Every structure is written in structure tokens, then in C-alpha cells.
Amino acid sequence: MSRRISGFKPTGPLQLGNYVGAIRPVVRGQHEQPTVVFIADLHALTVPHDPVLLQARSREVAGLLLAAGVDPDHALLYRQSDVAAHLELHYLLECVTSYGEAHRMIQFKEKGGGGGSRLSLLTYPVLMAADILLHDIDEVPVGRDQRQHVELTRDLAVRFNERYGATFTVPEAVHPEVAARIADLADPARKMGKTNASTAGVLFLLDKPDVLRRKIMRAVTDAGTEVVYDPDGKPGVANLLDILGALTDRDPREIAAEHEKNGYGGLKARLADAVIATLEPIQRRYHELTDEEIEAVLAKGAERAAERAGRTVRRTKAALGLTGGRRAPAGSPATPATAGRPS
Ligand code: TYM
Predict the structure, then answer these.
(1) Which domains does the chain have, with CATH numbers?
(2) CA-CA-CA-CA torsion for 162, 96, 173, 72, nearest 10 degrees?
(3) What global pTM score does this model have?
(4) 296 alpha carbon to ligand 1 midpoint, in Å?
(5) Which ligand 1 atom is at minimum distance from the Cα of 141?
(6) Exposed site from 12, 66, 163, 170, fewest CB < 10 Å?
């Protein structure tokens, strides 16, 4: 059965793109498929950060994941920095990554990467590869923005296996059918993101209902008044239809047909209702959770994650000829590493 992983960077409060693009697919699949969900707090160190805020945000992300339905009895939920194997595998994988490969990653440029940025901003896609390969993952359900990183992960896994023997499962990215990339409501050319400079077009999972409604009613729409699904010609309206389609499991074109006559206002009001109906119960559950409950779940998750991740690191070290592992004598062709993929 294919194993899935999802990671959430605690660089800001979670927003609707995270929910539709990643959280919901995870929650829906967790009873059928082995699932790993983690708070990617090490990734939050790639840009300037406030330690106190980071700690609070990590807990908030964990709480929201639980409130949104991640079930720790089914999914493995933990905080990345609690499991040192991420750092160990990160370095080992850097040794099969070229500088050019890391430099080509779009997000380095998008996040303003240059001479003054943290070195970790350049290498974080390799840390992401480590996150995935540690757990023998088959499928990575992510929004489109993360596709290139999963491609890099595949390249590294294949290269490592060819060079040093079968060690890693080669994963693939899977995207939700609708709304794999939700756009900012105030600027449909941009992705909705937790760190967007203006929050006017970002629907945060913890925004109050009146704030959500106001942001939606003020969403930038396109010229004309007719509701049609045309992502190139009418990206603003298409985005609203995509979000509504994703939240109600409907085809955005069908919804457009229903709103053809009553204009943008009617569509926005319906979207506001759907967003509020989705987020209200999540917010209620979130506010009921205590810090102790959240930390207890994370501590238990870290223990379980460390076991599997530790096995992967041992296998990788053995393949590389590092301490402790059994390795074929030098000069012999690469053989599979001592252990295969754990069942
Ligand atoms: P992050 O924290 O930016 O986003 C978490 C997840 O939410 C998805 N997402 C979106 N999907 C649709 N529309 C949007 N506007 C939108 N915004 C965010 C992202 O695609 C992602 O699935 N590098 C990752 C975290 C990470 C990770 C991993 C993910 C670290 N290691 C290993 C998967 C596997 C990130 O920055 O996600």
C-alpha cells in the first residue's frame, strides 16, 4: 500500500491553500494509506525568524492539523526538529546533489535568494528530499508549488540507488484534482501563501467569520460581470470557482453555469458561506485543544518517527561505506544496501 507524507512549514499561520492543497487530501487518505504528517520547523530557519514566534507557530500548526482531522492513531504526526535523522540524512544527500541542481530551484529565486541569504535557503530542497526519503514514501500530496522539489527528491533517490545500491523508495508528487494552486484573492497572479506581504487576499484558517467574508467580498474579480470558468482570461473568478469547487467537491464549470446570471456578488456570497462552514468547526476544535494535549501527541509521534528514520539512516550510511554498516569490498559492483525497504 502506498505511503504518503505531508509537511507544513510554520513560517506563518496556516491558510486555505494549505488546507485544500494538502491537509484535506491527507485527512481523507489517512484511513486507507499509511500517512506521515510533520511540522517542518527546520525549514522555517531558512529565512530570518523569531524563536519565540516559531515555537508558538509550530504548536499552532500541530493544533490546526489535529483540529482539521489528522488522526494521530492513524497518521504519524510529529515535529521535524524532534527527530535528528532529518539532519543526518540531509547532509548525506547533499553529497549526491550538485550545486547547480540546488541553484536551479525556483523557490530560491522566488524567496529572493542571493549572496546575502542563508545557505540553508539554497539547500532546503535537499532537506525536503531527506524528509521524504527517510520514510520510504511513495506519494507526496502537495500543491503545484512543491512539484519541483519532489522531482529533485526523485532524481536524488534514483542517483543514490544507482551509485550505491538500492536504498531509497522513489516517490512521486500527487496533486488534488481541483485547486492544486489557490491564488491570492487580492492578486490572482500570486499563490495564496502564509507569508504574502499583504494579508488582504489570504484566508487564514483562524480568521474570524466576518474577516473571511470581508476578504472574499473584496476579492479582485475581472472585467465584465459574467461568471465563466476561464483561468487565463478571468483568473480572479476562476480562482473563486476553484476554491468553491474544491470545498464542495464539485466541478468549477458546473458552479459557473449556476451563477451565470447572478453576477460576481452572488458567487462571492456563496463562497463566503462555504469557507465559513468549513472553517468554523475546525476553529472550534482548535480552541478546545490544550498545549499539553498537542505536545503529548507530538512527543509520541517523534518517538515512532525516530525508529523508522533511524533505520533509513543506518541503511544509507551502510551503503555509503560509513561506520557500522556492512558493505561489499571495494571494487565489487554496487550491491543493494544491507537492508531493503522495511515492510
Ligand atoms: P508549505 O508549508 O508552504 O505548504 C504546506 C502544503 O500546502 C500546500 N500549499 C498550497 N496548495 C494549494 N494552493 C496554495 N495556495 C498552497 N499553499 C501551500 C503546499 O503545496 C504544501 O503541500 N517545503 C514544504 C514543506 C515540506 C514538505 C516536506 C512537504 C518540507 N518537507 C516533505 C511535503 C514533503 C512547504 O514549504 O510547504
Answers:
(1) 4-179+289-320 (3.40.50.620), 181-288 (1.10.240.10)
(2) 110
(3) 0.91
(4) 24
(5) 22
(6) 163
